[in-house]
Amino acid sequence: MASPIAHSFAGFWTFLCQRGHSKTQLPGHWRQYLPRLGVLILLANAPDLDLFLPPGFPNNALHRGFTHSLTVAILISLALSCVWRIAPGFWRSAILYFTAYGSHLLIDFFTGTKIGWTNSGFGMPLFWPWPKTFSSPLILIFGIHHKNFAALFSLDNLRACTYETLIFGAITVVASVLWKRKLKSRILGKRKLKSGPNRPTSDVSEHLLSELQHQK
Hints:
The structure is a single chain. By secondary structure, this protein is mainly α. The chain is built from seven helices and four strands, in the order ααααββββααα. The termini are far apart. The mean pLDDT is 83.
């Protein structure tokens, strides 16, 4: 599995995508959005809560089990939409919840022991209760070790967390720059549309003035 760093970034991206469809500006109202951000980040990490099921952490026997499936992702998304509409409308909320939860499955799908076309993925029962497991032959993310507390705080896990921070941080920075450019182009486009109807009027008035001067 990937570390909570990668999954938390994915939850943050889900939140930004949701805010991108809103007309309100985030900086002036950021406090009211903290609960939504927290829920989406928690949901993006939720499948790994199977590590804490009885008899206790780390429960490797149940890890990457039914919680790492599209079936559970759909059920949880629908249930949460009934409890809290995080976006306008039931289905929009369900899709947002599913995106946050599903991001975990997508990241783990490309997680393994060796980077590259190594086919070293761990496998997940995506279509549970069908027991067949699925993983990508192309591995993009190092899996962290969680056999015990000694493995959890190993140098290999430190390397994996550093790798995730650099890669996902870089993606976040690049996406932010592209998003700002897109917003600027939208603002400039709106300004041009607003000033557009005034131009013909000024052209007509200039034409009338020139005709009057010519007649004089």
